[in-house]
Amino acid sequence: MTVPAPLGLLAELTHACPLHCAYCSNPLELVARTDELSTSDWLAVIAAAAALGVAQVHLSGGEPLRRADLPEIAAGCADRGVYTNLITSGVGLSAERLAALPVDHAQLSVQDADPAGAARISGTRAWDHKLAAARVVKAAGLPLTVNVVLHRHNIDRVDTLVALAERMGADRLELAHTQYYGWAQRNRSWLLPTAAQVRAADAAVAGAARRLAGRMEVLYVSPDLHTGTPKPCMGGWGRQQLTVAPNGDVLPCPVARVLPDLPVDNVRDRPLPAIWYDSQGFNRFRGTDWMAPPCRGCPRREVDFGGCRCQAYQFTGDAGATDPVCRLSPHRPLVDAVLATAVLATAVPAVDAPDVAPEYRRRF
Amino acid sequence: MRPRLLAGATLRWNAARAQWLMMLPESVVVLNETAAAVLSLCDGERTVTGIVTALAAEYDGVHAADVEQLLRDLADQRLVELS
Ligand SMILES: C[S@@+](CC[C@H](N)C(=O)[O-])C[C@H]1O[C@@H](n2cnc3c(N)ncnc32)[C@H](O)[C@@H]1O
Ligand code: SF4
Ligand code: SF4
């Protein structure tokens, strides 16, 4: 198999963040600020990535604005002709700061359709900052994507979320069901919506997408646990994207740290091209040769690449198994059992009472 | 009909890859030369006829039906808006 050059780099500049979202997919073991790559380290990573063929860099985290050197890092991307996407909570995004950031696009996360709901899920009062951040992005003439992670406590408000994104002037609205990794996995029983909630949201999103066609693009990331259709995670392992964690660890996906046997290389120890092309970690699940039945021989194996390795590991203990959300997986009953708990949780009101709190992403 | 790129989408030549790429806010699409040539003319001002004329001025053997079909395919892939 010839290995294609990567197209995208997810640069997780820091795990520091003013918010504490209970759905945060960041790892439970957050990288300390003292272990973060330096400015020159990041500039070298970006140069190496661009030389390797990377055309798009996502500046993310944590909260990328927590890095004082963000302007230099963004300029490093611009200098290499890379399309730069700022993924931010919006907290700390003033007009002055944005003016110093040569980025092509901003993606702003919004936690709920009202201040109280947003504070409940993020453990932070950031509502006014979000509205201000959206104004700043639009005033700068940048395209704006509003991103909302959907879960049991905001999924019934799709229409108000859409209205909020319209008011913010979003060019795109991404309504993405929670992926259960990191803190979201920890809080899964608190976050998981019922099948009925998902069906109602599906319809509301489809209606909004039709109504707004040509004005605001509405994107929807379906909940794979419910649909039974595995996601082609990262467009295939080591195929299009790489992630560099705040400490310089290079991963095929931001969550892959959870896989216990995965050898992980660091940009401080090994050149990026060697990591991409030759490392054990990146070659571990490349292509389709590693697959076992039912993926092996399945006509969809080049479409979804067998789904998510981390989800396979989290449910079955075997990172090489078929993603258990797949209806063809012998482990699908494990997923159905988890879905059944969502119905139970909403049927017993006490579990949803306001005093029952999730475990917020660790403070930093 | 005046085809235009989606919000936040731009077309870029990537020297390291020697490829035309469509940059979308969250993804990159590798384009072949024909698609890149057509998309570079989708500025929201030119009509489909205008695009065909501009292409015919630069390339031989441009057929309106082929261009229209390509535009429909690109619209299906959400790379261009035909409104
Ligand atoms: C980890 S955040 C980092 C950037 C910034 N702090 C923010 O929240 O926008 C990157 C993106 O992932 C999304 N996200 C976080 N946890 C998620 C989860 N469990 N499932 C799906 N998306 C998630 C966020 O909404 C955000 O758009
Ligand atoms: S998802 Fe929330 S907690 Fe996690 S990095 Fe983004 S804003 Fe911070
Ligand atoms: S068996 Fe594997 S390849 Fe086939 S649909 Fe399921 S996850 Fe995808």
TrEMBL record, chain A:
Reactions catalysed according to its record: [PQQ precursor protein] + S-adenosyl-L-methionine = E-Y cross-linked-[PQQ precursor protein] + 5'-deoxyadenosine + L-methionine + H(+)
The record's similarity note reads: Belongs to the radical SAM superfamily. PqqE family.
Keywords recorded for this protein, A-Z: 4Fe-4S, Iron, Iron-sulfur, Metal-binding, Oxidoreductase, PQQ biosynthesis, S-adenosyl-L-methionine
Enzyme class (EC, first level): oxidoreductase
Question: What pathway or pathways are given for this protein in its record?
Answer: Cofactor biosynthesis; pyrroloquinoline quinone biosynthesis
Q: How the cofactor binds, per note? A: Binds 1 [4Fe-4S] cluster. The cluster is coordinated with 3 cysteines and an exchangeable S-adenosyl-L-methionine.
GO MF annotation list: 4 iron, 4 sulfur cluster binding; cyclase activity; iron ion binding; oxidoreductase activity; S-adenosyl-L-methionine binding
Protein name stated in the entry: PqqA peptide cyclase
Q: How does it assemble?
A: Interacts with PqqD. The interaction is necessary for activity of PqqE.
In terms of CDD domains, this protein maps to: Radical_SAM (cd01335)
Q: Which PANTHER family match?
A: PQQA PEPTIDE CYCLASE (PTHR11228:SF7), RADICAL SAM DOMAIN PROTEIN (PTHR11228)
GO biological process, any: pyrroloquinoline quinone biosynthetic process
One Pfam entry for this protein is Radical_SAM
UniProtKB/TrEMBL annotation, chain B:
Domain of life of the source: Bacteria
Q: Does the keyword Iron apply?
A: no
Key words, A-Z: PQQ biosynthesis
Question: Which InterPro entries does the record associate with it?
Answer: PQQD (IPR008792), PqqD_bac (IPR022479), PqqD_sf (IPR041881)
Please state the pathway this protein functions in, per its UniProt record.
Cofactor biosynthesis; pyrroloquinoline quinone biosynthesis
- Gene Ontology biological process terms in this record: pyrroloquinoline quinone biosynthetic process
Annotated GO molecular function terms are:
quinone binding
Q: Which NCBIfam families match?
A: PQQ_PqqD
Summary of subunit composition and partner proteins? Monomer. Interacts with PqqE.
- What is this protein called in UniProt? Pyrroloquinoline quinone biosynthesis protein D
Q: Which organism is it from?
A: Planosporangium flavigriseum
